[in-house]
């Protein structure tokens, strides 16, 4: 209503300035979205492509000169590539689980971030497969793996499950897009989400069995490894979705209510606590008086891997505190806590892979050679006195190129695919 006697407007029924304000607000959102989908996004895609090409060039150098250019040798036959492979499999599985659980069980989701989570899962799966490819000394012989495959090997299980997982993730994303257009029924989408959920759990379990079924490595040989891998995947996958959702909301790509981020934060905190619980159970079993794993615990808590151990424990604990404390659930702290959790899980992967080689399981009667370790001339005491493996600059460059490939896939998905929910379309200019 308006007070015509005084000429003052006491309500905004006839206040054109309010309408202008709302119009300017919509224009600001549209401009922000256009900037994200325009030069900013194109620049990010260009940078990712350049880094990826540089990584391919370095991979060519690795292929021409051989794997001797890396830090991997007989005493540490896996390195940064397989560590990153484990890490990206976890990121991918966590993202798909976050997306598929609400649809599989018919519960409330997280405010329309489902397709974005699946896209991040696809990108991480591509990066994980890329890590395996660059770890091959002779990728041209990849066909022999299928021609002479050993179906009793966990390595072969992982190849089959990972390939199926990537295809299923793409199908799941396609089904969600088609469901938004009314072309796929909710029943069909729910069935696909259930299959995707089972596959996501299976892909990380099989990856864990590659390590857990090796009896010769004290740190790897535990029945707890598969569920522990799944819990770690939920931690880093949920943390990645949190960071991506906040970033896309800030960029104007998503309009996400803060309540959904709080809900996601509580879930992340619960996953972190479960993962730390599994870690504590494993440490207690190994360190209990008379246990055969006391050497493993000493290596983690006071040996060469101590920085990675405490980074994981402290980082994940801080993440849980942020997620469970209402006053700390600001966007900045949620991003910081999520990044700490992601860093902690990466440190866990370093501990697992390097720790498996850090404790010698063979005694060499003869002299050491350059093929057994890069520091072969320092003797076994010198080799195992510090970290038994450290990547070379070439490995770091190739790994960065594969990471850029994953980022490029995700950014192209953001640019080209309809990943926003139907009611969250940005206003047109």
TrEMBL record:
Family listed: Belongs to the NrfD family.
Protein name: Polysulfide reductase
Residue intervals passing through the bilayer: 41-61, 81-101, 113-134, 154-175, 187-212, 224-248, 260-279, 305-325, 332-354, 396-414
Membrane topology reported for the UniProt record: Multi-pass membrane protein
Keyword entries, A-Z: Cell membrane, Membrane, Transmembrane, Transmembrane helix
A cellular component annotation (GO) from this entry: plasma membrane
Phylogenetic lineage: Bacteria, Bacillati, Actinomycetota, Coriobacteriia, Eggerthellales
Keyword match Cell membrane: yes
Location of this chain's protein in the cell: Cell membrane
């Amino acid at each position: 209503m308006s007070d015509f006697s005084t000429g003052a407007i006491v309500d905004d029924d006839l206040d054109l300035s309010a309408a202008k304000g709302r119009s300017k607000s919509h224009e600001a959102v549209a401009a922000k979205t256009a900037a994200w989908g325009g030069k900013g996004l194109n620049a990010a895609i260009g940078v990712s492509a350049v880094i990826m090409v540089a990584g391919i060039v370095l991979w060519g150098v690795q292929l021409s000169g051989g794997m001797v250019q890396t830090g991997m040798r007989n005493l540490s036959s896996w390195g940064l590539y397989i560590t990153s492979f484990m890490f990206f499999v976890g990121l991918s599985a966590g993202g798909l689980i976050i997306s598929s659980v609400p649809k599989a069980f018919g519960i409330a989701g997280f405010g329309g971030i489902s397709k974005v989570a699946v896209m991040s899962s696809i990108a991480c799966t591509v990066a994980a497969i890329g890590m395996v490819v660059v770890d091959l000394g002779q990728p041209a012989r990849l066909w022999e793996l299928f021609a002479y495959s050993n179906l009793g090997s966990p390595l072969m299980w992982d190849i089959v499950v990972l390939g199926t997982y990537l295809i299923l993730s793409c199908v799941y994303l396609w089904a969600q897009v088609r469901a938004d257009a009314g072309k796929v029924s909710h029943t069909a989408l729910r069935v696909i989400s259930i299959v995707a959920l089972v596959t996501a759990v299976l892909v990380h379990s099989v990856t864990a069995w590659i390590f857990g079924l090796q009896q010769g490595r004290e740190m790897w040989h535990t029945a707890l490894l598969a569920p522990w891998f799944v819990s770690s995947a939920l931690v880093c996958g949920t943390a990645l979705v949190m960071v991506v959702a906040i970033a896309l909301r800030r960029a104007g790509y998503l309009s996400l209510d803060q309540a959904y981020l709080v809900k996601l934060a509580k879930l992340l905190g619960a996953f972190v606590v479960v993962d730390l619980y599994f870690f504590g159970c494993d440490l207690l079993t190994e360190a209990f008086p008379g246990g055969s794993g006391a050497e493993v615990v000493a290596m983690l808590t006071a040996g060469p891997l101590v920085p990675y151990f405490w980074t994981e424990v402290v980082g994940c604990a801080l993440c849980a505190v942020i997620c469970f404390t209402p006053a700390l659930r600001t966007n900045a702290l949620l991003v910081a806590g999520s990044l700490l959790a992601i860093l902690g899980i990466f440190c866990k992967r370093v501990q697992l892979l390097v720790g498996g080689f850090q404790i010698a399981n063979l005694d060499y009667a003869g002299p050491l050679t350059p093929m057994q370790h890069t520091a072969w001339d320092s003797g076994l005491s010198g080799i195992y006195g510090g970290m038994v493996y450290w990547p070379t600059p070439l490995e770091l460059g190739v790994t960065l190129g594969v990471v850029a490939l994953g980022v490029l896939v995700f950014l192209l998905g953001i640019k080209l695919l309809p990943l926003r929910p139907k009611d969250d379309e940005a206003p047109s200019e």
